Amino acid sequence: MAKDIQLSLSYLPVINFAMQQNHVPVIREITLKNTGEETINDIDIIVRFEPEFALEYCTHIDSVAPATEEKISVVPISISTEFLSNLTERITGSINLTARTGEDVLAEKHSDISILTFNEWGGSNVMPEVLAAFSTPNHPEISLIKKRASEILARWTGNPSLNAYQDRDHNRVKFQMAAIYEAISEKAITYCVSPASFESQGQRIRTVDEIFALKMGNCLDMTMLYAGCLESIGLHPLVILTDDHAFAGCWLIPDSFADSYNDDSSLITKRMADGMNEVLVVECTAMNEGSAANFDSACAAAKQTLLTTEKFSFFIDVCRARVSQIRPLPLRTTDENGKYIVEDKEITRDNSAPTEMSATDLVIDSKAEVNKKTIWERKLLDLSLRNNLLNLRLTRGTIPFISSNINAFEDALANNEDFKICPRPTDWDCELLSDGIYKTINATDPIHDLIQQELPQNRIRTYLDEDHLRKSLTHLYRSAKTSMEENGANTLYLALGLLKWYETPTSQKPRFAPILLIPVEIVRKSAASGYVLRSRDEDTMLNITLLELLRQMFNITIGGLDPLPKDHSGIDTSLVFNTIRRKIMEQKNWDVIEQAVLGNFSFSKFIMWNDIHNNSDILCKNPIVSSLMNGVVDESVNAEISEDGDLDEKFKAGDIVLPISADSSQIEAITAALSGKSFILHGPPGTGKSQTITNIIANALYRGKKVLFVAEKMAALEVVQNRLNAIGLGPFCLELHSNKAKKATVLEQLKRTTEVTKTKSADEFRIEAEHINNVRDEMNACIKALHKTYPLGVSLYDCISRYASISEDCPIFDMTTAKAGTVTSDMVAKMEIALDDLRAALTIIGNPADNPLRGIGSIEYNAEIDETLASIPYILELIDSIEQMLMTLCKEVLASDDSHVSKADYDLFIELAYPLSDEYLYEGIISETLESLKDIKSATIRGRNRDEVRAKFISEYDESLLGIDTKAYEAEWREVLSKGFIGRYFGTKKYLRKLATYCSKPIGADNVLTLLKDIASYQQDNEAITRMEHESPFLQSVMNGYETDWKKVQVSCRLAEEVRSIINKHIADHSRMEAVLGRLSRVLAQRGRSFFDKIINNREMLREILAKALYKLGASMPEQPDPDDDIFGTTREMLTRWHSGRDKIRSWVMYNKHKESAVTLGFEEIIRQIEAGGYGPAILKDAFHKTLYKAYAEYILTQESDLQLFHGTMFEEKIRRFRGLCKDFETLTKEELYAKIASGLPALQKEASHSSEVGILQRNIRNGCRGISLRSFFASIPDLLHRMCPCMLMSPISVAQYIKADGMKFDLVIFDEASQMPTCEAVGTIARGKSIIVVGDPKQLPPTSFFSSNTYDEDNPHLEDLESILDDCLALTLPSKHLRWHYRSKHESLIAFSNSKYYENKLHTFPSPDDLQTKIGYQHVEGTYDRGGSRQNRAEAEAIITEIKNRLEDPARSSMSIGVVTFNSNQQSLLEDLLNDLFVTRPDLERIALECEEPIFIKNLENVQGDERDVILFSIGYGQDKQGKITLNFGPLNRDGGWRRLNVAVSRARYEMKIFSTLRSEQIDLRRTSAEGVVGLKEFLEYAEKGKNAGISSSASSSSYDGFVEAVAKTLKEKGYDVRTNIGSSGYKIDIGVVNPEDSSSYILGILCDGYNFASSRSARDREIVQVSVLRRLGWKIWRIWSMDWWTNRDAVIQELCSKIEDAIAGRYVEAEEEPIRLYGHSSGGYIPSNISLDSSDYNALQEAFENRGGTAVPEEPELLVDIVPYEFTELEQRSLPVERVINEEYDDLIMDYIEAVIEKEAPIREELLCKRVLRAVNIARMGVRVAEYMEYAIDCVSPRYTTDDHRTFWSEDQDPDEYRIIRQSNERDASHIPYEEAKNAAIHILDQQGSQPKDSLIREMAKLFGYSRVGDNVYYTMQKGIDLAIAKSLAEESDGRVMLKR
Fold first, then answer.
1. Over the stretch 1635-1687, which tens digit does the pLDDT of each residue have?
2. Are 1941 and 1887 in contact (CB under 8 A)?
3. CB burial readout 904-943, b (16+ within 10 A) else e
4. Which CA distances in Å does 384 have to 50, 390, 775?
């Protein structure tokens, strides 16, 4: 079996003590590959080490399937510290890897490993960073060096303090380094030569005590000693190695590199350049004895060595290595036995990763309390010198301008003038100052006049020459463009004025911070044209980061510059500069330098800092923010969201609106959003995040909710915005991604909303929804019935599938449907166990029909069985004996010559033996004839009678009496009796006396005749007997007178008859009867009865013994043979068999036992056929299952009415109907959505109060928002803004900029690309919502580090955020939802690597028709990587440009969009340059590449997330250098989370990906790195090189085996078609694919079944729309087969299927016409509706849809919160009644009738107005006191309903004051008569239609509504009361002097 197993081992080739101490894994991975065709189970992996430097390691693998491999990635090896510490010489050991199963060894592998000594370093080939362990700062000897260095330092500077970086003075650091240098030099250490190639092979490194004891050290020894000393005083040392040398370096600022190991020398050379002063290098051998070089000379020598880059190898950052947990070697001593002891084996320390401090980070307040808010503020406000807003340095990213008049330059830009950027004059040069800034020119400078002259000509000069200027401009142009594309924010500014400042009073190096920042842009019309500088339509900014630095660090507050002072054109720069100069007047050496510098700056995060800083109390009220701040999870945060099982059942069509088609995982996310709870939405690449977000927003807006959508990148926001536009929601959304948004753009968006026309919602929406539900329910009912699980634990489909999986030849046994219905899963389990046991037993015993013990039925084994079998020979002897005797009889009696005793003969002789052996049988009688026998029988009767008479006479009479003449005596007696009385009397007496002579007693007269009669009878019998005796020889032979045994003769006669009868019965030929009897008689005579008696005895003995034996064996007698067959043959054969197989009796008994169990469970018939030899044991379970599944399927059909009449054609008709309804419903949904949201808009087209929100909006749209900022504008229309644009699309910055923290909360906040959004940037946005949805992928890019600060708080690590808000929300255990379906990649090979490597194959992807091939190409490029130089790979870049050129020139391929991905920005720049060069020469290709929907892009790993293209070209870049050396530094891939960058990069392609690489996968040695990103790169390259299945594991489908699918596939194979099953590498599979006979790499037809893949879909939409449509768009021809059709008519299904295959092969296959389904992806390759463009701005499309459906769309009147009606007065009959009579109650009835009539008509009505109405009707003009009292009395008598405020208001019976929503207009009603409820309604109406406004304005508008042109006291009072009532009833609220609706 060993040949079927391959073992491979990834391990370190060397191991030493340092590696062991730093937990470097010796074994990285063990791979076990099964190359055989069978699964291998129960595998043990054993790892042993020789010598035993580590403990044996064992692990177990359950199984490895054929052609698969198992990897063990975590191999915890326990290495012996004692062994390594005592090793004095390098030895070679081995790692022995064994795979075994049980005692069988499957495979073995032996690998050599070098074991190094305690102080031996392994070199650069294996974990070179471990070299840092040999820097030992805590060694006791170093303390002496430090002490001496302190003394030297005091002598030099007067200050002995070794205070590292505390002074923030690089010169102080240099002096400390020099002091250490001198202290070591004084030790007089002799130099010794290093071995060759030590830098790669490694060498022993002398420890500190060895160096000082031996006074000897080489370059590496001295370097590690010096590094340890530097580290001991708190400095950050570097260890630098070249090909044959080592020396040290040190940071002059408290910084470190991102990686501990680096092979790029430029990282050091740039930092040690003149003026930079960040790193200093030292030649350490200059400290050896004999060298006179001072410290400066040593530094110069090291610098010169480093500049020789071709010899440079790598360097180690010791400080960074410590962060990576590489600890110093412990101190080693010896015990009393001379054995080494490691003293400080364990060092207790804080092992949390510290921050990578920037050069001179400024500590804001080390004593202040640090909390989460503080951490966030630090991250947002970068006050470190890394921020170029505080520490501007002239690099490639900055362009300094030569300017003598900054004010004039700013004025020109403010007037929108463009400037051409020019290089410095070739004949002029200006040197840098030592502090890194160019000198400012003055009037005496020769170039001054030239600059002055060129400024009016719109030319501006720079300090750079032409070549450097071109490169810098290109870099700035690209980086600014990238920033705008990625983040939607401009970062390109012109800095005017620089503040020169110092960190501390003792600091020597000045810093420069920009003061004014003018937003500008660099414009280039084409690749061939130059660059132009122009200002953007944005405000000039003051450097607020600088202001905050001055406030916090130096307590300098600069006021008066907000807003910035203006002059006649733009900003008054002189006033700004002078204001700052006055504030810094007391600061020594500080000044304002009037220079202009162009560069990329980012200070926008200050806005978010300010938001957190000033609003923390508001923010922390949000439960999620509170949880993040306090570290304690609020219960409401992680409340579980119920899982949606059956989506169709839970959500009906219309319950959620889906303007864009969605799959089930997306719908689940949409429904979760409706719950109002916060959750995380995981969205792996290409899973439709933007579509899902769009649907979530649409549903929220549909329900009247306010949504805030937030994305860091503009690209992500634009995708969602375009989708919202496409579904008609654009007018209700406001995009404000940039915090510097243009007013005109924003106002244009708002104006578009004001033009929305309201329309009525269509009834069709609800009708169509019901139709969809009905059809969907019908379809789902069939599917559910098909897959419904019954008590047996199976569904109908399970039954069909399992039935189909069993061979057609397998028998089926009888099982009724009723019986099948009673079977339970428990019963089946027992049956299967019984069958398994029986099959196992059959395997042991073989075929029962051939087993010698067949027939033995015992189920219990005991000793008696063995004894019985042992006794068989005796039984056989009996049989032989009986047989021998019977054979004799056959021969002698029957004259037979047969060789056996037949059953007939046996029966004959056994039957004869009984009579013949009878003792009463006379031997001769059997030969008597039948007549003779009759005579003998007669004689016997007479003889017995005679003898009885005689015996009787003898007892009473004399025997002579018997001889008398009875006739004479009788005649005499009769004569006596005839006489008379006397004669008779005497005659009698005489006669009696005569007789008395014969008698012993008297005889009575009455007995005479009887006596005579008896004597006569005797005489007759005697005579007859005598005669017979004479006639019969037999009688003669047996008679003995009166002694004859007549009984015996009688029995013998009967026996003779019996013999005759037996013979007569058995011998058909009666003619032989007599002959046989004769021979039998002779045999009997010869052999006697004993012969037959022996036969009987033997036979009985045999029967008894055999019966007992059979009983004990549980057997029965064999069946009786045929009459002519051998009677003993069967029995003898059976017994002989049993005896021969007696050693197998245990197995046979076991079989019997399992058989009985099986029989008990109903398997009697199956077993009977097996034992009859009809079938082998293998069919046991199959036969059972086939029988069971068939019967159970029929049983289920009796229960499922939905399936009884199922027909596939009818079902497909339902599917077509469902798809059509869904297509129409999608359009209806958009219409309904549009109508519903539009109905909530106020009256935007009507004129409104100038101070109302609508009025403010209208005014600002007209005047372009002059004189007011957008923030102020938004603050003036807070309620209206949310009503007009309930969805806002923003960035975190713009949220902080425009949305007040204490303003109206959004119902839902959605974060997109949350993995790239730092928590500190998100908290402000979170607090502005009630719930959040965090959308992102934790396996994609973390936040980028562009412009970010390095502010890790080492003292408070528990307060630090995780990488992103996504990670922090995951840590809060926020509920999660996952998008599962991947749509981007049109070929599975494009996503298979990511799916397998990073998503555990949980993404559902769609196979394509060409699934048998791969779409990832690999092109090996011959070239080199310029390591240490440009860090570019020109060969790869040129190959990619050639590929691009070829594609653009090819009309067939030019339409496919292209993206290029690189590993670093250097390679990106090279490609951009080369592409630019191509476009200069080929502008036609430039137009094709750029003037299209998706222009070509070139991006690196850091900024490619969110992008996708049809074709992705991938430049690896890294590879071997010119010396053929390959390092494992792959930039960002080496860092933590590098694998996430790789995941993003390799998942961008839709149709094709091509890798260009000078590096091959086998060249990446994983033993030299532990970075996950590098491991992933190696595997990805291998995947690209070897094909789609290399190293990629496929996901199992919903069910691992589908018998129905396999049965169909098998049938097709039998018919000659090449088919594959379960096509696809993810959880979604195409059941069957028919391979194209003309192209074996593609499928001609895809076959879908209704099996497990089908049923696993969570909704009908998934099954019938999404999946099938995607497949068809991918090019599949799809045919469906239904299991119920196959069940009822298999042949018809197969026949139709074959016909379709033939049609497909012949090109005749035509699928049913399907409407395009609106799905996902980009229009160039995706599934966007053909009638909608993503960038469509035609928002009248939905209006047109209304017109198309029902004629002209009728605008709908606004849906008002109140009804406005005219006031209706009551018409009362006019009467003239005397007042006194009225008061005296004479007209009470009339008055009360009038009161009731007025209230009924005019309610609600104030009491005063009611009285006036009634009194006027009866002609009473004045209401005095008495009249008033009467009216009060009359009203009380009527008892109407009323409410009371300061007056009574009366209501009719059908009115509810709380629900009253009517305004009645009339200018005849006094304001005081208006009920406050009505005034309240007026306030609500105005606020609803015009938005919030000041109270006075609202009162005026309310008065207008009631018809009052002026606002008098009464009007004002009543309106004021209405407003107060609205507020009291929580219908409105007042804030900041404005009244607004409370929503």
1. 999 988 899 999 999 988 888 888 888 888 888 889 988 889 999 999 999 99
2. yes
3. bbbbbbbbbbbbbbbebbbbbbbbbeeebbebbbebbebb
4. 54, 8, 65
